[in-house]
Design brief:
This protein is an alpha/beta fold. The protein is about 45% helix and about 20% strand. It is elongated, with a radius of gyration of 22 Å. The termini are far apart. Bound molecules: guanosine-5'-monophosphate. Guanosine-5'-monophosphate binds near residues 83 and 102.
Length: about 220
């Protein structure tokens, strides 16, 4: 349980390895909960509805847009993806930070709506690794691969908008780095109102003590 839970946005170009980092963070930390997004894309082999995504039809997605159910949504690689407000609320109300694995367009919307959100951009260690990871997705056509490659270029340009950059050179290393970001962010003054009050109380006591120590003028 965290005293002051916040939104943690993880973005990366496709093939940047952020989903693996997200999974490992969720496995190893109890203070994080995952916001399960809605998407109109088809499930990949091994993906479970309600766990990896809520897989919905374009019509069902549109209905949620119209009803204002999304905190943010965007079209990525020709499919729609969105963060449900209810998912963010569910995790926050359990006292955990909310992990959002979303694209750069979504991240912009989240920062506008939740200015206290923490944003991390996962940087691929090299072009070769990025391309080979993109090619590794057997489930996709050459055309889909080309789209992802083009988008990766645009997405990388957005890295400068993020508060933190983490190079995904080695999984354990990247996971540790994101963990360190979480721990540092928990110590931000704005997230520690109780400690702030303690400081005020100490100041008040010191002032009291000083006034008592100095004899009043006769
Ligand atoms: P994939 O189809 O590979 O699971 O995801 C494609 C891209 O969509 C990734 O960059 C992923 O982070 C992003 N994405 C997943 N869920 C959401 C979401 O709810 N909102 C936005 N804006 N992007 C998302």
């Amino acid at each position: 349980m965290s005293g002051h839970p916040f939104l943690l946005v993880l973005s990366a170009p496709s093939g940047g390895g952020k989903t693996t980092i997200a999974r490992e963070l969720l496995r190893s930390r109890t203070d994080l909960g995952y916001s399960v997004s809605c998407t109109t894309r088809a499930p990949r082999v091994g993906e479970v509805d309600g766990v990896d995504y809520h897989f919905v039809s374009p019509e069902a997605f549109e209905a949620r847009v119209a009803s204002g159910a999304f905190a943010e949504w965007a079209e990525v690689h020709g499919r729609r993806y969105g963060t449900l407000r209810s998912e963010v609320e569910r995790v926050l109300s359990s006292g955990r930070h909310v992990l959002l694995d979303i694209d750069v367009q979504g991240a912009r919307q989240v920062v506008a709506a939740f200015p206290e959100a923490v944003t991390v951009f996962i940087v691929p260690p090299s072009v070769e690794i990025l391309v080979s990871r993109l090619q590794g997705r057997q489930s996709e056509s050459t055309e889909a691969f080309q789209v992802r490659l083009r988008n990766a270029r645009h997405e990388l340009r957005d890295a400068e908008r993020y508060q933190y950059l983490v190079e995904n050179d080695e999984l354990a290393h990247a996971v540790r780095r994101v963990g360190e970001i979480i721990e540092s962010e928990e110590l931000r003054r704005e997230r520690l109102p109780v400690l702030g009050q303690k400081v005020e109380a100490v100041i008040a006591r010191l002032v009291d003590g000083l006034e008592r120590a100095v004899p009043a003028p006769t």
